[in-house]
Amino acid sequence: MATPARKTRPRLRRSPVQGRAQATVEAIVKAAAQILARHGPEAATTNAIAARAGVSIGSLYQYFSDRDALITELVRRHVAQMREVLAAALQGLEDRPVPAAIEQIVAAIIASHRVAPRLHQALHQSLAVSRLATIDRFEADLEEMVALALAAREELAIADPGLTASLLVRALGGLIRTTLRREPERVDDPALAAAMTGMILGTLERARRA
């Protein structure tokens, strides 16, 4: 299964060509991620981020024009990590029987959502709807990957692979995010993965062509 193409990386305000400058950018990004994950969007001001990173506010603005530019860079990095985890978790999917393949898809989606889940939630809260394009693209690519996998399985005979994939990915994504927020310990419960696998298999059965 091909891995979706990644978006072109947005440029920083100033390119950190020297090692020291790159270390400064990394410290700023790490500090922003820590504050967002631990304290939420309202606490992640540029002054607070600069203070945690141990740099002056002027140094922060050398590389990021404003807080939104910094959050956008965080989103880019976060989604890149999710893509890597997902791609690795989906290796060999085509060669597995349908029930085992569905189990693998469930495990892959759970794994991708376990990449800094508190940061993921904070990033959703930090960006205006119009700026969520990077996260939306990741989810749309995941839907496309699942749709292609469903369409390739002739034995499933799915009437509308695209619609079925969208329903499954969005349902699982919402379920996993809610569980991570309210009962994070349950995400590692095999019973939850088994229940989601059963839900998918039931949906696929109902989605067959008449």
Detailed description of the structure:
The chain has helices spanning 19-39, 46-53, 57-63, 67-89, 98-113, 117-126, 133-152, 161-182, 190-206. Helix 4 packs antiparallel against helix 5, helix 4 (67-89) packs across helix 6 (117-126) and helix 7 (133-152) packs across helix 8. The two termini are 28 Å apart. The chain has nine helices and no strands. The chain is mostly helical. Helix content is 69%, strand content 0%.
Helix content: 55-70%
Largest pleated sheet: none
Give the overall shape: elongated
What is the N-to-C order of secondary-structure elements (H for helix, E for strand)?
Answer: HHHHHHHHH
Number of helices: 9
Uncertain segments of ≥5 residues (pLDDT<50)?
Answer: 1-11
Give a quick summary of the entry:
The protein is an all-alpha fold. 69% of the residues lie in helices and 0% in strands.
Fill in the keyword field for this structure.
210 residues, mainly alpha, 9 helices, 0% strand, disordered N terminus
Give me the secondary-structure topology.
Elements: H1 19-39, H2 46-53, H3 57-63, H4 67-89, H5 98-113, H6 117-126, H7 133-152, H8 161-182, H9 190-206
Helix pairs in contact: 1-2, 1-6, 4-5, 4-6, 5-8, 5-9, 7-8
